[in-house]
Amino acid sequence: MGKNKVGDEVQNKQIIFRDYVIGYPRETDLYISTTSTIKLQVPQGSKTVLVKNMFLSCDPTMQFLMRKDESPLSRSYKYIPGSPINGFGVAKILDSGHPSFIAGDLVWGTTGWEEYSLILNPDKLYKIHHTDVSLSYYTGILGMPGITAYAGIFEVGSVKKGDCVFISAASGAVGQLAGQFAKLLGCYVVGSAGSQEKVDLLKNKLGFDDAFNYKEELDLDAALKRYFPEGIDFYFEQVGGKMLDAVLLNMKVHGRIAICGMISQYNIPHPEALENLLHIAFKRLTIKGFTYRDHHHLYPNLLETVLPYIRENKVVYVEDIVEGLEKGPEALVGLFSGRNFGKQIVKVASV
């Protein structure tokens, strides 16, 4: 905390949401404010905690919180014009009125995009007990993306040894983990990504059996038949649109699809129509949508499974970290055009 101590009033740099967005968010929809101050102390008698933010997570669903119109996320979560945005992050507790937390604790959970945050509902924070791994991992492999990938492979998808697994958006925060989890189970795994550099990452660093650049494939159906000549057992869906339509043609009978996102559909006026839906019936497919919200009970399993693999370098997690809160708008907006290489993170401060 440097020379600042509990009880001091300090400047609190923030990233402010300018106004509701239509279509793709732009950097100008967010701005840096240095006019706010905060007292480094929780209100007397409250059960709040005051934190110093260290790492902030850039996640695709944050764009839904910028829209005024009805979206898949509740209006109660929407960003408020003129106020700081929020998202998942890693922080250090400076002062606490909550019995479960004390000053010095490291936590991950929802926090503000600012230097310091007063967390009104600390019950949704997770205390960090394992500090022998990078703290930034708690925005990714040991945070929400980790829960999502773990749930999709081990619970929703019921993936088993020998399955032929396809993962779209495979180099992103969730996809890179889902592929590695499937490989650990003994599956044949292929991923799609949006550049040759990302394809090389999947094949050479993350251990995928193969990968392709979807932007260079004129016929996605033909591409999938090339990589899955006998069909796909399990598809981890994060893209939607033309990719999903091509996958339906290539699923095996009784195949499974787990849907946790459809990023190709997020910013178009009218969702793309699917032409191959009859294959759901023909092939008796099981399709299930899910998010991390229903799978927090798996978090202890995730830690038990993944921490040894991280320590033994059997699981790799690729991060794209920018330094400084002022880099936040550029990092977040770049996520929606695939500018990031791995999990996009903003580093605000050190311990």
UniProtKB/TrEMBL annotation:
The keyword Oxidoreductase applies. Coiled coil: none annotated. InterPro entries: ADH-like_C, ADH_N_2, ER, GroES-like_sf, MDR_fam, NAD(P)-bd_dom_sf. Residues 33-346 form the Enoyl reductase (ER) domain. It holds the Pfam family ADH_zinc_N. SUPFAM superfamilies: GroES-like, NAD(P)-binding Rossmann-fold domains. The keyword Oxidoreductase applies. Keywords: Oxidoreductase. It comes from the Eukaryota. PANTHER family: NADP-DEPENDENT ALKENAL DOUBLE BOND REDUCTASE, PROSTAGLANDIN REDUCTASE. This is Enoyl reductase (ER) domain-containing protein. It comes from Trifolium subterraneum. The lineage of its organism: Eukaryota, Viridiplantae, Streptophyta, Embryophyta, Tracheophyta.
